[in-house]
């Protein structure tokens, strides 16, 4: 009898837990569906727009754009803030048959910038987004200033050369980092990382 009672309690706990998380997942997905969309490679990409004024793009890292939530609300008091989700993130579709890497993400970012006419909008990027925005700029697909937040602590090899090759105008950023022996180091308040 004890085993039966324990089993019933366990089943009830599992059902309650599943229902609780189903509701939360639906709510989060439901909120994501109310974003704006654009087309990239015949798939639907999602983004949010908040506020008004000079446009600014917030680019997420290896998760969805939700880590920007508090910051985007504050920033939108003075700027028009665009927050895209890269392919396969958030409410954006994954691209079938494509390797989801920084090259694909860079092309998606470039298409977003083109479709929204945001070629002059500064891009504030986080983590993985720093590499995506740097590659997009290095390919000449945006002339916008780049602001890196939480860039990988050591960017060596190809990525260091990529960042060093950016035009000087793109290297002028509000909060940057400094260079040392081909490594991307600690954030500083310097606005020019080009010639260190």
TrEMBL record:
Organism of derivation: Candidatus Beckwithbacteria bacterium CG_4_9_14_0_2_um_filter_47_11
Gene3D superfamilies, per database record: alpha/beta hydrolase
Pfam families, alphabetized: Abhydrolase_6 (PF12697)
InterPro entries documented for this protein: AB_hydrolase_1, AB_hydrolase_fold, Carboxylesterase_BioH
AB hydrolase-1 domain: residues covered: 56-173
Domain of life of the native organism: Bacteria
Protein name: AB hydrolase-1 domain-containing protein
SUPFAM superfamilies: alpha/beta-Hydrolases
